[in-house]
Amino acid sequence: MNISKTAHAASAARLSRSVLVITLAGALSVPLQSAAQRVGGFNNGVRDGSADSIKGEPEQVFRSGFQSCTPVFATGSIGEWDGTFGMSWPAYNNALRIFSTANQYVALRFNAAQNATQSGRVLTTEFPGGGSGVGVISISREPGCFDPAFLGENCLGPIQSGPTLDWTNDFSLPGCRLEPGRSYYLNVTFGGTVPGNGTPSCTSGNCGVDLRNVTQ
Predict the structure, then answer these.
(1) Of 93, 96, 107, 141, whose CA is between 20 and 30 Å from 189?
(2) For 84-118, how does the pLDDT look when each residue is reduced to its tens digit (9 = 90+)?
(3) What is the pTM of this model?
């Protein structure tokens, strides 16, 4: 398994066949709020609605609608989809158990399959001891991006218990449109510890879900 750590964060991962457990911990030398203020997103677990680029920095625009984006939180755990599952995206119906503490995110890099008609749904389910968090899923070009202003159309899922996200390689179908062969990140976060109306939250401080791709 290939799990890397972002700056100022410590991560530990344990893989048992098709089930991965990721936990995040560690102090930060950069305040979490500063990362949210730079590009918008969740401010202490609450989406602040802003989407301004860092002043003076060029904005990278992609043909598919994706733009350069700084992670919503300063701490995250970044891994490889293929190395985690032991098979390439989308690995239909294979479960991945993910834990993440509040004010952090998990990102798994994958390559969209060379199949112009492939599509699916990222589906998550709760389990006993999972913390009953309210989460959200996104697909982006950079890890940890959840701001719709920096994502492709339909690439941010609903905020809910057991979050989901539809994706497709077929541009005639609805869902987050992926270009076959291109690299993306599947991101999951449970926001902060303070519950709010329509915002992700993990009041227990450590929440998880079982994540899998299913066919559409």
Answers:
(1) 93
(2) 888 999 999 999 899 999 999 999 999 999 999 99
(3) 0.72
Pull the structure tokens for residue 24.
């995040």
- Helices and strands (H, E) in the chain, number of each type: 2, 14
Q: Which two tokens stand for residue 92?
A: 């239909």
Residue 96 near residue 18, CB atoms below 8 Å = yes
pLDDT digits (tens, 9 = 90+) for 130-144: 998 999 999 999 999
Q: Which residues contact 29 (CB under 8 A, 6 or more apart)?
A: 8
Q: Which residues contact 50 (CB under 8 A, 6 or more apart)?
A: 37, 39, 40, 41
CA distances from 37 to 44, 47, 48, 57, 207 (A): 10, 10, 8, 15, 24
Strands 76-80 and 105-111: parallel
Q: Is 51 helix (H, G, I), strand (E, B) or coil?
A: coil
